[in-house]
Write a structure and sequence with these properties.
Bound molecules: N-carbamoyl-L-aspartate, zinc ion
Organism: Cellulomonas bogoriensis 69B4 = DSM 16987
Distance between the termini: 15 Å
Function: Catalyzes the reversible cyclization of carbamoyl aspartate to dihydroorotate.
Largest sheet: 9 strands, mixed
CATH topology of the domain at 53-361: TIM Barrel
Structural class: alpha/beta
GO molecular function: allantoinase activity; dihydroorotase activity; zinc ion binding
Catalytic activity: (S)-dihydroorotate + H2O = N-carbamoyl-L-aspartate + H(+)
EC number: 3.5.2.3
């Protein structure tokens, strides 16, 4: 028999306190019905916000190929600690996840690890080369049931290939997740093109390189009648284009990363490549536009773009360093600090952008292991408990990701994950991984 848990005094969506009884992997009772649960293990949830388990549409778990940076195991441990019960693993691995064989391998590694559901993203093009469509149908039909396709790291820049990909995924109700970057406008680019790039002497990356692709792709999605998801929006102009497209009825969704909601290009003055990321950190005006877009629903999801890199790829001069920063363990703290404490969003909004919307976009909100479901009786007990007022200092050395390239080392965040339940089984309790968890118990 599996353990029953009584989460006492938690606040679902940050609203009125109640008790939640977790039994047989599901939410068995709420409120008065939960109170007389005998022999249940009690979790003191006083003051904690209960959210549906977080869903990340955008993480780089690096396996296969760069196990020195991260593995499915280490990455999903980081995910659990960050409050996630489901992560999408990007396809820019080695070999690339462009066949049924590779996506099944990643999916199986996730199952065996047992820390969070792993949904592999399938590549759009063979080898991410941008010329030939990958075997999208075979990946969709595989055990991994791929629904999100992306060449992330690379842009699907050929409009004919993009059109074909959008047409193809309609047959499986899939979505193309685009890394919007016109490569001809960003050759050699190192940081946002603007005042700061001119002053520090690093090659600029113009906002139009992103916006031109976002504009093209919403029009292609409209023409084809297919679903488009735009990854890591970074400019005010991109937010405007997505807002326009939604008003027009185009089936587009969009993502913002935590770092683009808090950091700016001013940080490049340090020449510390910890701040080097793709797309680049932009201006304060862009940050403000992204925050407004997330709050008003123009931007549908927060995706971490967790991009671990080993020390040797970051401890070098700016121009030689890899693009990317880790994010799974700090995402909730940043959204809490930037969006909730400032009054821009409620915890119900956080549940929408970090759980419900990403699950719906990836079509994992139904089926045998649904994610992003409401906190209601009968639903799977995927639950994240957050201490909304807990201040904590990010300590890179204490992170469980195999890589330590976080830009937030030494910074204080307010709002911390205290517990994560994956189908009724705690992966995190008291802010720590539950190591005794038998791998795969949630199968
Ligand atoms: N975001 C990054 O700076 N890097 C990502 C690729 C990507 O998301 O485009 C990576 O794979 O390292
Ligand atoms: Zn990308
Ligand atoms: Zn990415």
């Amino acid at each position: 028999m599996t353990t029953r848990y009584l989460l006492q005094g938690v606040r679902p969506y940050g609203e009125d306190a109640t008790d939640v009884l977790v039994e047989e992997g599901r939410i068995a009772a709420l409120g008065a019905g939960a109170r007389d649960a005998r022999d249940a293990q009690v979790v003191d949830g006083a003051g904690l916000v209960a959210l549906p388990g977080l869903v990340d549409l955008h993480a780089h778990l690096r396996e296969p190929g760069r196990e020195d940076a991260e593995t499915v195991l280490s990455g999903t441990r980081a995910a659990a600690l960050g409050g996630f019960t489901s992560v999408h693993a990007m396809a820019n691995t080695s070999p690339v996840a462009d066949t049924a064989g590779v996506v099944e391998q990643v999916w199986r590694l996730g199952r065996d690890a047992g820390w969070a559901d792993v949904h592999p993203v399938g590549a759009v093009s063979h080898g991410l080369a941008g010329t030939q469509l990958a075997e999208l149908g075979a990946m969709a039909a595989s055990a991994a049931r791929v629904r999100v396709f992306s060449d992330d790291g690379m842009c699907v820049h050929d409009p004919v290939l993009m059109r074909r990909a959008l047409e193809y995924v309609k047959t499986v109700d899939g979505v193309i997740a685009q890394h919007a970057q016109e490569p001809r406008l960003t050759q050699g680019s190192q940081m946002h093109e603007g005042v700061v790039s001119a002053e520090v002497g690093l090659a600029g990356w113009p906002a139009v390189a992103e916006e031109a692709i976002v504009a093209r792709d919403v029009l292609l999605a409209e023409h084809v009648g297919s679903r488009l998801h735009v990854l890591h929006l970074s400019t005010a102009g991109s937010v405007e284009i997505v807002r326009w497209a939604k008003e027009r009825g185009i089936d587009v969704t969009a993502e913002a990363t935590p770092h683009h909601l808090i950091l700016t290009d001013e940080l490049a003055r340090t020449y510390d490549p910890i701040f080097k990321v793709n797309p680049p950190l932009r201006t304060q005006a862009d940050v403000e536009a992204l925050r407004a877009g997330l709050a008003d629903g123009t931007i549908d999801t927060v995706g971490t773009d967790h991009a671990p890199h080993p020390r040797e790829d970051k401890d070098c001069e700016w121009a030689a360093a890899a693009f990317g920063m880790t994010g799974l363990e700090t995402a909730l703290g940043i959204i809490s600090t930037v969006m909730v404490r400032s009054g821009r969003m409620t915890w119900r909004d956080v549940a929408r952008v970090m759980s419900q919307a990403p699950a719906r976009i990836a079509r994992i909100d139904a089926g045998d292991r649904p994610q992003g479901r409401p906190l209601e009786v009968g639903e799977p007990a995927n639950i994240t408990l957050v201490a909304p007022d807990e201040a904590w200092v990010v300590e890179p050395a204490h992170m469980v990701s195999s890589s330590t390239n976080t830009p937030y080392g030494g910074h204080e965040l307010v709002g911390r994950v205290r517990a994560t339940f994956l189908r009724g089984r705690p992966t995190v309790l008291d802010g720590r991984l539950v190591e005794a968890t038998p791998a795969g118990a949630a199968r």
